[in-house]
TrEMBL record:
This protein's name: Copper type II ascorbate-dependent monooxygenase C-terminal domain-containing protein
Species per Swiss-Prot/TrEMBL record: Chondromyces crocatus
Annotated ranges, domain Copper type II ascorbate-dependent monooxygenase C-terminal: 338-427
Compositional bias per record (Low complexity), positions renumbered to this chain: 36-45
Molecular function per GO: copper ion binding; dopamine beta-monooxygenase activity; electron transfer activity; heme binding
Signal peptide feature range: 1-20
Length: 430
């Protein structure tokens, strides 16, 4: 479909790039007046210029944390009141300073792009929180405080739902159960997916979910054969659909409704089936689940998009290394028409630490993605604030860094939890 393809013989194994989008908030965080501090005018204000909860800190927490840290959210505790924030103050400071929270694996500093859906605090916001904790968490005047934001909303219209159809109870003998379910959405006409929302049935067990399209009869047959191997719903699979399949939508904790860049969408073919891969983590117990994916469709789009993998397949990592690398580069054939890259979803497994992706044209190198604190549990596919164009002759490069200190054997490419991957999934149009 696109003018180039990386030769991949394991297409079926292509896994997990999660279009997890933001739980938070769009990065356009209000700073709640920090930077324009005035000296205390009310009796509750601290001496000097120390930030207060209501005026300075609450706006940051409401915009960037409250979508998950609320009673019905996925985080283990809520940050909606002064008391909540005060109790957790030190860990709020530490996790924000280390950029562990809000969770976002891509570098959004601007050194290598910014993302329209980044979950990200500015350095100034991090400093405001630090200064507030340093000043022993002054409360300030409630009248200065922001409203508590409403919970995140879903799609404004749902045209088709991909539903597992049955409840599946994960296998209690496993810590992680990776299960694939065949779904027939009964689409009467070809259509383009322009927005999506994955709705996990039970967030206590669902760790990731990915929807794949099956594009031909043989893929559907292969999936059906796997499905018939036991009489429980679905079939086991890790890291992908286990059959030749095309990635459509991914979800990781905190993911919510995503709208694709204006004028773009991913094609769905009439009458074709799909596979929903769900990663169940059993640490909370084997709760039954029925996950679904809602899509908003358009009959046509200006530009058909595809999620195209740039993988370092030659991955072979020696054990016992603090940094073992895998890399790959690919030069677009000269006749390749201009391609617009709208976003990126990095994917590695649990040994992954860093990823650098770039496009090289002559002496110019354009950064496509940088990951410095990879976390397998917070995968996301994010959209650039400004899309990037590449063309024939450009070389796309990817390098991943892994920590193999705890391994005694070499680690190679594969779908297993013990195997590794190094892939950048690029959301692109031609
Ligand atoms: C996308 C959802 C999401 C957002 C947004 C989010 N958190 Fe979290 N947070 C979680 C989850 C889930 C956990 C539980 C631990 C984990 O899974 O990493 C957590 C854990 C934490 C912890 C405890 C960490 C620990 O080591 O015990 C702190 C502190 C925290 N978050 C602070 C924040 C702050 C501050 C913000 C906003 C600046 C924020 N979080 C935004 C989901 C989120």
């Amino acid at each position: 479909m696109l003018g180039w393809r990386v030769t991949i013989t394991f297409a079926a194994a292509l896994p997990l790039a999660l279009l997890a989008n933001g739980c938070s908030d769009d990065g356009e965080t209000s700073t709640g007046g920090n930077g324009t501090t005035t000296t205390g005018t009310t009796s509750t204000d601290p001496p000097g210029n120390a930030p207060t909860y209501y005026k300075d800190v609450a706006p940051i927490l409401m915009d960037n944390c409250a979508s998950c840290h609320r009673a019905e959210g996925i985080a283990p505790f809520s940050f909606l009141t002064y008391e909540d924030a005060k109790i957790a103050a030190y860990s709020i400071r530490n996790t924000t300073e280390q950029r562990l929270m809000p969770p976002f694996v891509l570098d959004n500093t601007g050194d290598c792009n910014t993302y329209s859906d980044a979950r990200w605090l500015t350095d100034e916001q991090i400093k405001t929180i630090g200064d507030w904790v340093e000043a022993e968490m002054p409360e300030g005047d409630p009248a200065d405080g922001p409203e508590i934001p409403p919970p995140p909303v879903g799609l404004d219209r749902v045209d088709v739902t991909f539903d597992m159809g049955v409840e599946y109870t994960p296998d209690a003998s496993l810590t992680d159960d990776y299960r694939c379910f065949i779904i027939d959405p009964q689409l009467a006409n070809d259509a383009y997916m322009i927005a999506s929302e994955v709705i996990p049935g039970d967030q206590r067990v669902v760790h990731h979910a990915i929807l794949y399209a099956l594009d031909d009869e043989s893929a559907e047959q292969a999936a059906a054969d796997k499905d018939n191997q036991d009489n429980r719903p679905g079939y086991p699979c890790f890291g992908g659909a286990g059959v030749n399949a095309r990635w459509l939508v991914g979800w990781a904790p905190g993911g919510r409704a995503t709208t694709y860049p204006e004028g773009t969408g991913i094609k769905l073919e009439a009458g074709r089936k799909a596979v929903l891969q769900v990663h169940y983590n059993l640490s909370n117990g084997p709760m039954p689940d029925r996950t679904r994916v809602d899509l908003k469709l358009a009959p046509s789009v200006d530009k058909e998009a595809a999620v195209t993998p740039l993988p370092a397949l030659n991955l072979n990592l020696p054990p016992g290394q603090e940094r073992a690398e895998a890399s790959f580069q690919f030069t677009l054939p000269a006749q390749t028409p201009e391609i617009t890259i709208y976003g990126v979803g990095p994917h590695m497994h649990t040994l992954g630490k860093t990823m650098d992706v770039s496009a090289v044209r002559g002496d110019d190198e354009t950064c496509l993605a940088r990951v410095t604190n990879w976390n397998f549990h917070w995968q996301s596919n994010s959209f650039y604030t400004t899309p990037i164009r590449v063309r024939g002759g450009d070389t796309l490069k990817i390098t991943c860094g892994f920590d193999t200190t705890r391994r005694t054997e070499p680690t190679t490419w594969g779908e297993g939890t013990e195997d590794e991957m190094c892939i950048a999934f690029l959301y692109m149009t031609r």
